[in-house]
Amino acid sequence: MKKSGIKKIILKLSEGLLATVTDLLLLQFFLIGSSLGKGKTSRGAYLVIQEAAKNWEEINYRTLKQAFFYLKRKGLIRSLLEPSITALGRKRLKKLMPQYQSNRPWDGVIYLITYDIPETKKIFRDKLRLILNRIGAGYLQGSVWITPYNPQQILKEFSHLFGFEGEIIVSCIGKDGYIGNESLNELLNRVYRLEEINNQYGKFLDKYRKLSLPSVDKWKAAAMYLSILKQDPQLPDDLLPDNWRGNKAYQVYLYLTKKGS
């Protein structure tokens, strides 16, 4: 199979979370390896591969075995006899996977970011957009972004590094403020697609909250939850809708994927 075809399959299987077979298999080790690897035998490790092959019928067994040996060579799993990941493997997964933030302190201010970097300096505009995405800012329109988290220090460093002092402006809006004809809550809901994400959390809960642990496919449950979390801006609780399902979904995810189940 061509690499482009494999990548499409992987993205489909992992709900857009991961982009390589090795990362898919590493997550599989993390999710189900601990419950299979109670005895240090090679059978446990190969059971992980067989479970992956069952879930990912579109990827052939040989490709999965190659990924398995790659993980071992890179020190991401403990050994060929023990189906569990190493500290290095956990570190890699932490970088790949979205992380749920339980602590979301907020200073009660919404920050509006505007910039005036000419299109002739597109490379810097793109760098700035990348930074804004990484800090969780939401795109409003044109060269305007919004975020509930204070971006001033990061943007000050960016401006100083690339010589854009005075061309990036940060304004503050109170919790009860308006932008145009929209209230702040309406604006955040539109920019961050909160209603859509909340509906996805609802579907996850409808599917998994009443299932008993032995009947749950950890891989599918984790892939579904993490794919939603990846879209979630994880706004402060004060800015979330009253019926927000994200916190409950996280508790169900923890329960379903806990070790030893």
Automatic annotation (TrEMBL):
Domain named Transcriptional repressor PaaX-like C-terminal is located at 192-256
- Which GO biological process annotations does it have? DNA-templated transcription
The Transcriptional repressor PaaX-like central Cas2-like domain covers which part of the protein? 104-165
| InterPro entries per UniProt | PaaX-like_central, PaaX_C
Q: Name one Pfam family in it.
A: PaaX_C
The record's PANTHER family line, in alphabetical order, gives:
PHENYLACETIC ACID REGULATOR-RELATED TRANSCRIPTIONAL REPRESSOR, TRANSCRIPTIONAL REPRESSOR PAAX
What is this protein's name? Uncharacterized protein
